[in-house]
Write a structure and sequence with these properties.
With about 425 residues, the chain is α/β, with parallel strands linked by helices. The protein has twelve helices and 22 strands. Helix 2 crosses helix 3 (about 90-100), helix 4 packs across helix 5 (about 135-145) and helix 10 packs across helix 12 (about 325-340).
Length: about 425
């Protein structure tokens, strides 16, 4: 049996809650440093404000809320769903639920009522936190399940980008209401073995049939983020500005959120991609690193938008979500270097929801010499490459990838993981 071993983790992996990891005590980042920047309006959510609002929401959830069929505060064994496009209210809601120790199921904002009903039922969610525009979708989803929606919907009515606007929530509970009833002195802790409790549930469509819920623990995502830093995949500078339009309901979007908060990296984010607007944000905010998927990079190659804006602050794209062809990589690098981006490169990687999410990543110092590959194994992981008979394949030959390590999901909802190993049918080649 041939097992490929990554370098071991240099430091002991933290065993704590996700919230405690991104907001440690004492905090190593300045409380007035920017956390998230709304791309459309320019509104800056600062670190202290983000933390304070999350703890205030946690207090409302755990102490005064009257939610669910029993009209009670939520408990730590409850599951709650979020459905919303990217917005600052989504960030605060996610962090607030993590501070409260509530399992959080993340739903695609483009879901139909029937698709949402599947995830509500499958994840066992008792309440949905819903963007105002999606309240009709959530209401119909509950009704498709034969459940009265009263008490089951919290409207994300907090919008600091329009402070003078008042969003009517009607008979529903509003996010603003839950954030104005007090605060927690500290988050709910998940220290030691408790860090293996589920933090959130993303839904993966990488298999046949309906999307399946992947339970990711606090320890899973903390171990991946910590080990990615060891790989030097996160070699960010002090003047780093990130850009992401990846949905926060996707594991790649969640990972971007965690990196942003844990390492104090300001992130410009939005819910839509338009090549011209996207490049205007790079120019306006002097973005240095942009999270991207291959279709975005294809647009950056063929669309005239990069030539219409000053994109010289950009030093790299961090690509994931799908394979990126070498010829696209080289062509995008050539184009941005011709526009004045110095030492430009593209960091590629491979991951999946079930791995929280990273398995391989191409660190900065290898981005050009190893372009076209998925990179190095994330520290702490072990993999095998096998054929259809589960026998090792020779080096350089394609095989199915089996992965073992601390990032492997706790469980697929209703499908239990075995032996801390995930097998997702990915074909890879060791080089």
């Amino acid at each position: 049996m041939h097992i490929y071993n990554a370098t071991p983790s240099v430091h002991p992996l933290p065993e704590c809650s996700l919230f405690s990891f991104v907001f440690p005590t004492p905090d190593r980042h300045h409380k007035q440093s920017p956390l998230f920047i709304d791309a459309e309006s320019g509104y800056v959510l600062k670190r202290k404000d983000g933390r304070d609002r999350a703890l205030a929401l946690a207090a409302g959830i755990l102490k005064t809320a009257r939610l669910g069929p029993e009209r009670r505060p939520l408990h730590q064994n409850d599951t709650v769903l979020i459905i919303s496009p990217n917005c600052l209210a989504y960030v605060v809601t996610f962090l607030g639920l993590q501070a409260a120790g509530i399992r959080t199921s993340l739903a695609n904002a483009l879901y139909t009522p029937r698709e949402l009903a599947h995830q509500l039922r499958d994840s066992g969610a008792c309440v949905a936190f819903v963007h105002p525009a999606l309240v009709p979708v959530a209401k119909e989803a509950w009704e498709l399940l034969g459940v009265a929606p009263a008490g089951r919907i919290v409207v994300l009515d907090w919008d600091p980008t329009h402070p003078d606007a008042t969003l009517a929530v009607g008979s529903w509970t509003g996010l603003t209401e839950l954030m104005t009833t007090g605060t927690l002195d500290q988050e709910v802790h998940f220290d030691g073995s408790a860090s293996h409790n589920t933090a959130f549930i993303c839904y993966s469509s990488g298999t046949t049939g309906l999307p399946k819920g992947v339970e990711t623990t606090h320890y899973n995502v903390i171990s991946t983020v910590s080990n990615m830093l060891e790989l030097s995949a996160c070699s960010f500078s002090s003047n780093e500005i990130l850009l992401s339009v990846i949905p926060l309901a996707h594991i790649m979007g969640v990972a971007a959120l965690v990196y942003t908060v844990a390492y104090g990296l300001p992130c410009v984010f939005a819910s839509r991609f338009d090549p011209d607007v996207y490049c205007s944000w790079i120019a306006r905010y002097k973005v240095t690193t942009a999270y991207a998927v291959p279709p975005v990079l294809a647009a950056m190659l063929y669309h005239p938008a990069p030539t219409k804006h000053n994109v010289t602050s950009l030093r790299n794209f961090s690509s994931g979500g799908a394979p990126l062809r070498l010829e696209i990589t080289n062509a995008v690098i050539k184009r941005f270097e011709s526009l004045g981006c110095k030492n430009f490169f593209i960091s590629n990687g491979y991951g999946l929801t079930e791995m929280s999410p990273s398995v391989l990543y191409l660190p900065d110092h290898l981005a050009k010499s190893k372009a076209g590959t998925a990179g190095l194994l994330v520290p702490g992981l072990q993999v095998r490459l096998v054929d259809d008979s589960e026998q090792d394949v020779p080096e350089g030959q394609p095989g199915e990838l089996w992965v073992r390590g601390p990032g492997v999901m706790k469980v697929c909802v209703m499908v239990f993981a075995i032996d801390n190993r995930t097998d997702n049918g990915s074909l890879c080649r060791a080089t």
